[in-house]
Amino acid sequence: MAISGLPxxxxxxxxxxxCAGCGAAIALRLITKAAGKSSILTQSTGCMEVVSSPYPExxxxxxxxxxxxxxxxxxxxxxxxxxxxxxxxxxxxxxAIGGDGSSYDIGFGHISGAFERGENFxxxxxxxxxxxxxGIQRSGSTPFGASTTTSPSGKESIGKKEWKKDLMHILAxxxxxxxxxxxxxxxxxxxxxxxxxxxTRGPTFVNLFSPCPTGWRFPxxxxxxxxxxxVETGVTPLYEIINGKHxxxxxxxxxxxxxxxxYLRTQGRYRHLFRPEKKEKEIEFIQNRxxxxxxxxxxxxxxxx
Length: 305
Ligand SMILES: Cc1ncc(C[n+]2csc(CCOP(=O)(O)OP(=O)(O)O)c2C)c(N)n1
Ligand code: SF4
Ligand SMILES: [Mg+2]
Prior knowledge:
The relative contact order is 0.13. This protein has one domain: Thiamin diphosphate (ThDP)-binding fold, Pyr/PP domains (Rossmann fold). The chain has helices at 23-35, 47-50, 72-85, 100-106, 108-116, 167-172, 187-199, 213-216, 223-232, 260-264, 280-302; strands at residues 39-43, 64-66, 93-99, 121-127, 153-154, 157-158, 178-183, 203-209, 238-242, 245-250. It has 305 residues and is an alpha/beta fold. It is built from 11 helices and 10 strands. Helix content is 35%, strand content 16%. Helix 1 (23-35) packs across helix 7. The strands form 2 sheets. Strands 2-1-3-4-8-7-9-10 form an 8-stranded mixed beta sheet, sandwiched between helices. A two-stranded antiparallel sheet has the order 5-6. The longest helix has 23 residues, at 280-302. The chain binds thiamine diphosphate, iron/sulfur cluster and magnesium ion.
C-alpha cells in the first residue's frame, strides 16, 4: 500500500518474513524510501536482518551488507572511506541500520567511535525496545516497567527497573549535526527527518519508534495506533537536535498529554501494572517522569539550547 506523499518506489519488502503488524518492517520501508536508489546500506544482526535475507532470497532492492551484531557503524565508516577515495562521497548515501539492542547496547562503542571521528553517514535505529530476535530480552532501550524474559514481572518485580537510555542526547553530545526521534505512526514526519539526516554532512542519527506486536503483546492490527498513542501520551516525544539546538515537533504542550495509562493498557508487557491490582505508585512514577522529560525538552527548545 502506498504511503501518502512519499515516493512510490519500494526498496524493501518483497517476500520478507516479518510477523504480521511488524513496526520495524514499516521503519525499513521509510528508511529505504528516504535513501533512494544511490545508497549503500549496512545492518546489524536482528529481526530485520533475519527476516529479510534467508539464503538464497532477499527482500532488499538496494546494495545491503550484513556484518555482525555490533558493527554496522564501523562498516559504514569503511564504505564512507572507500567512497571518498573514489571521489564518490557526494553521490552515494551511506546508511547503517541497527535494532535497539545493537544500537543502544552491544554496538554502541562502534557508533560512538564513528560519531567521534565525524564519519559521513546516517545511523538509523529501528527501536522495538528489546532484543526481539533472540526471545524478547530487555535492552537499554526497554522502558521502565516493561516485562521481558530478562526483566520478568512477578511477585518481587514490576518488570524493568531502569528508565530507557537516552541515546538521542548521548549522540547529540558527540557533536552530531543532526539527531532526530521519529515514529512509524507519522511517516511523512519520519521521511522528512530521514531525508534531512541523509542530506546532512557528518554522522547523523534517527531513532524510529517501531512497535512489535509479538514482543509487546498486542493485536497485529494495532501497531500504528499504539505508535501514535506513544506520541500523544508523551512516551515518545518527536523532536530534533539540529547542531545542538532542540526543536520539538509533537507533543509540544504538557497539559495536552493523554494519560499514560491509556498507552500502558494496550500492551501485554505492562499487564502486571493493572493485574491482579493496579500499581498506582509505579504508574504515577511513569506519568510524572514523562511530564518532566517533555517539560525539559520544551524548555530547552524555548531557551535556544
Ligand atoms: C555479539 C553478539 N551477541 C549476541 C548475538 C545474538 N543476537 C542476535 S540478534 C540479537 C537480538 C537483536 O536485538 P535488536 O538489535 O534489538 O534487534 P531486534 O531483534 O529486536 O530486531 C542477539 C542478542 C549476536 N549475534 N552477536
Ligand atoms: S518479533 Fe517483532 S520486530 Fe521481530 S519480526 Fe516479529 S513483529 Fe517484527
Ligand atoms: Mg530490538
